[in-house]
Structures are given as structure tokens and as C-alpha cells.
Amino acid sequence: xxxxVRVAAAQQGPNLETDSREVIVTRLxxxxxxxxxxxxxxxxxxxxxxxxxxxxxxxxDRAEMDLWFERExxxxxxxxxxxxxxxxxxxxxxxxxxxxxxxxxxxxQILVDKDGKTVGKYRKVHLPGHVELEPERRFQHLExxxxxxxxxxxxxxRTMGGVMGMCICNDRRWPxxxxxxxxxxxxxxxxxxNTPSWNGLGGPDTPELRHHHSRLxxxxxxYQNATWVVGVAKxxxxxxxxxxxxxxxxxxPDGQVVAEAQTEDDEVIVHDCDLDxxxxxxxxxxxxxxxxxxxxxxxxxxxxxxxxxxx
Length: 311
Ligand code: ING
Known about the structure:
CATH architecture: 4-Layer Sandwich
Number of strands: 14
Bound molecules: D-[(amino)carbonyl]phenylalanine
Number of helices: 7
Distance between the termini: 63 Å
Helix content: 10-25%
CATH class: Alpha Beta
């Protein structure tokens, strides 16, 4: 019997600073209903799906940003989503800003199974951007100011008939992210991203180049670890001149894009992901036990042998 998971990538249009959690959850619920009507087993939502991407704001007092964080999950605003999912036997992954009871701040993604049980949590490890206000920027990217690096590693979970993993946004650019999950046998990596279309410092990036880098990273991660990758954007203008790229997509273990969003709005794309399609590459080209030579990899945790800068 093939292990097919019908996955819905629920790309989200912009969340405005003035949008309430309830208004946003209503959109998420509508997309879950669309996914249900298409027979989806699993809905993947994006990074910070419940709020605008607030790290573009600077606050001297970091506590001013706590209003964007969730203190518990599910909570009153999100319970309708959990209830509908459990009633309709749909699993989902949801990204949000997490404030723990002991006061820690994380950029978090959870995995909820078809019975509505939270079976997995991931906290974003690779936080891009900066800590202090950088006035020269057209917009700030203060994830390092408002979030702590994730402290859960890159776990995988056996659910939905396969081995599932999660990461968040900038994580997708780092090969280590996929490989750590790949070494655990991951078959489907779910990730959300909120990626500004322009570099805040006016760097050479163009929207086209940003799209290329995003796709390249996810396609490589999929192929080199023989896994499905589902990348889900929050897209569009969350504020005047602050545009997030779209490009949500579903990528097969050969690194091929098999479904992609056409808009920069709320958009559900669906694909039947056959988890058994991972097996061929996992047992041949990327048979890690047969081909990897870890004894030659040296201290990969340090920049060993880095060439010193010119005098
Ligand atoms: N956003 C961006 C991302 O990694 C970024 C930040 C964009 C870093 C482009 C480097 C280049 O997609 C988040 N939220 O991580």
C-alpha cells in the first residue's frame, strides 16, 4: 500500500498590523475548509501565521512586542481551528510567535495530528537579521532582538504514516537543517516563510533573485535528503512598501516543484505526496550509511581551516 499524504500548502496573503487574531484565524479556517473540500490530510500554514511580521518594527523595550506572542496554544483565538481540524480528521502545522510561561520568546511551528493532538514543536534555530536598530535600513529585520534561537534542535516525528519534520524560513537556506532531519529519515519537511522581497539595505537582491535563492535552497534540501519539502509563504504588502515574496510550493524528493502558488494572496495548493517516493534515493544515491564518510568531515561545527583575510 502506498503511503500517500494529500498535503495542502495554505499560502497566506498579508496580515496587517491592525488585523485581530480572530480575523486572521477566520482566514486560516476558510483555507482549512478549502483543503478539506479537496480531500487534504494535512494543511501547512506559514511562519507567524497569526500576526503581521512584526520584526520589521523597532521597540526600545522588547516587552512592547509581547502583544504579538501567544502564551498558550491552542488559545481562545485559535481553538476554532483545532476543533474543526479534529472534527474533520485533518492534521496541520502552524507558525506563530511563542512566549513560554517562564518568559522565553521563540519563533515556533507546531504539528497537530488528525485527532487534534499537538505531536510536534519546532523553534526556529537560524534567526536572520540584527539586534539593534539599524537606521540605514529601509526596514528593520529584528528577529535576533525579539526571538531566542530555538532550543529543540531539528526533531522529526512519526505521524500521518510517515516521518515528518519542520523548519522555519531562514532555516531553509542552511543545508544542515535538512541534513539533520535527513539523518533521522525525514520524508516530508514542512516550512513557512515570511521573506521580504527586497533587502533592507538596498543590496543587489531583486525579487527574481530572492525567488531563485528560496527555490534553490528548498529544492536542494529535498533532493540531497530524498524528502518532500512544502514551502508556504506569507505574501504581499503587510505595510506600504513592505512586500513579502510569495512562491509557495511543494517539492518532491527529486527536487522538482510539483505544485506552486500563482498569487500573492490566501491560496491553497494541494498535492498527493507519496512518501514511498523517497525510498529510491534514500536507498541509492543518498544511502547515507553506504556513501557518507563522516571520518573525513572534520570538525564541521567550527570554521576549521578558514583562510585568514588578506593583510
Ligand atoms: N526571512 C528571510 C528569509 O530567510 C532573509 C530573511 C531574506 C535572509 C533573504 C537572507 C536573505 O527568508 C525570515 N523571516 O527568515
